[in-house]
Structures are given as structure tokens and as C-alpha cells.
Amino acid sequence: MCGIAGIIYRDGAQPHAIGTDMTRMLQSMKHRGPDSTGYALYGKPSNLVVMRYKLADANTPRDFEFSDRLQRNRAEVERRLASIGARVQEFEEETEYAFRVTLEYEGDLKELADYVEDVPDCEVLSLGNSLEIVKDLGDAETVCDGYRLDAFTGTHAIGHVRMATESDVDISGAHPYWAYPFPDVAVVHNGQLTNYFHWKRRLERSGHRFQSECDSEIIAVYLAEKMGEGATLEDAMRESLEELDGVFTYICVTKDALGVAKDEMAAKPLVLYEADDIVALASEEIAIRAIIDHEIDTYDPYEGEVMVWQR
């Protein structure tokens, strides 16, 4: 079933408690997806690169070599960052297996991600100047507490609560997805692509890699490739409705925008609240009411509709 949510504040660069806001929205939809929770959060843009990566999962077997293996792989990631010319400014251990690194790096992000991911069990969850993807097993409050997201401030965010139906219950199968190898683009999605394998093969031939078998990752890379060719976010999303088959609703975010798209059948639910200072949308109205402290009117976007808001 799953649930998706998005929020964007429309008052420029003024920081807001989006970590707390998104947690409230996602926790209110816990019944739609108890297996995992994920966030794509946009903080203050910087000249530095923020990389979030994992070396294991919450449910990885803790055999007698687990701690030593984790320590060796972490040291190898740090060695590779130094050897490729990335200068670490800050290194944070979020959990025993998930890490946040702030870097000075002027090279190619694809080269960086590929080089680091050659370390056994390493998966780069996000790379960018403002995007940070956090996802793990459990409900929103559990993930928020584990990663201290109540302290995260920024301008916009998307989130996802997942009920696993077609892949494993692990971090790799959790949403959102970073649009590798493009910085600051992420997607959450509710539904199913019926031409998933066609687009996966096509994008792989263009040099892209995929960390999961989830069709949401296809949408993320598809949109980022279109934008890399010069399309606007809105144009890329409109093209996706022509080329991606299935029943789906998805939300895409970039460093300065949030957009939503519904396929022509519009079978997957989404409600929207729009005001001068904020736009909030979610699979259920209860999620919007979790962050708005006054009476509101919401509406459903139409079938085949694309809507984009700038911060």
C-alpha cells in the first residue's frame, strides 16, 4: 500500500524544522507502511558535498566478525575518499552502520560514488550540496530518533512509509531514491511501473547503475537524465507520463523545487494543500493535518496532471 508525503516552504531560504514536520506526516500514515521509513531532506545549500552511505542494515546478521568487518570497510571508505581527492570536513556516525560525511570535492560525483561503492557492503544513499537521504527499518518516530532528524532544518522534503510487497525489507528497498549520479534529485512513489525492465535496461546501457529492484529508482534516474539533457523538472515529469507505463503517483524533489505527477488513471491517492507560504501533499489528508494547526481545504490533483512548486 505505502504512503508518500511532500512539503515545501515558499519563503525563500528561511530554514524550517522539516525533519520534525516530515516525521509527523509519515508517522500519521504508519498504517500504510510499517516496514521502513525514508526521508529526502533539503538543508541549506553549500559548496560542500554531503554524502550519506551505509555499510550494513539493521537486520544484517551480527556474526562474530560483524564489528571487525564494519571497521575495516569504514576505514577503506575513508582511504578511498582521500585517494580520489575528497577532503573530509566532518565525519558523523549516525548509527553503527550508517554514516554522514561532509566533503570538499570538485570532481565527478559518479566517479566518487562508484569508487566508494566498490567497498564491500557499501551503498551511497545520497550525494549533493543540499540533499540528504535517510532511510531505515521501523516507523517514522524510530528513524527520526535514531538519526536525530528533529534537529534537521531546511526548506523542503519528501518521505515514504513502505509496506514491502515485491522486495526485501532492508534499506536498499526503502524509499526515497537518489537519482544517481545526479546531485540533489530524489523521488518517492506509490504504484507500479509495468515497463520497468524496458527502462532499466535502457538506462543501464546509458551507464547508470541501480542498487535495488524497485521501480521508484527507475523514475528518479529517468527524470534526472532528462534534466541532465536540458529539460526542466516540469517538462521531464510530463515526458514521464508519456513514456512510463503503469499506475502510479510520484513526488520528485530537486535543490529548489518539488513536483508531483499522476498517471492518466489516477488510481493512486494523493491530496494537496496549497497556501502562500507552504505546499503540503500526501497519500492521506491526515498527514497534512498533522502539521497544519488550523482548518484547511484540500483537493486531489487530476489524472495525468503535473504540478511543480519552487521554494
In short:
The protein has 311 residues and is of the alpha+beta class. It is built from eight helices and 15 strands. The protein folds into two domains: 3-41 and 137-310, Glutamine Phosphoribosylpyrophosphate, subunit 1, domain 1 (4-Layer Sandwich), CATH 3.60.20.10; 46-129, Alpha-Beta Plaits (2-Layer Sandwich), CATH 3.30.70.3400.
Give a written overview of the molecule.
The chain has helices at 18-27, 66-83, 109-117, 140-147, 196-205, 215-228, 233-243, 285-289; strands at 3-9, 36-42, 49-54, 87-93, 98-104, 123-128, 131-137, 156-162, 177-178, 186-193, 246-253, 257-262, 271-274, 278-282, 306-310. The chain has 311 residues and is an alpha+beta fold. It folds into two domains: 3-41 and 137-310, 4-Layer Sandwich (Glutamine Phosphoribosylpyrophosphate, subunit 1, domain 1), CATH 3.60.20.10; 46-129, Alpha-Beta Plaits. It has a six-stranded antiparallel beta sheet with strand order 7-2-8-1-14-13. A hairpin with a 3-residue loop joins strand 11 (246-253) and strand 12 (257-262). The longest helix is centred in the first third of the chain and has 18 residues, at 66-83. The chain is globular.
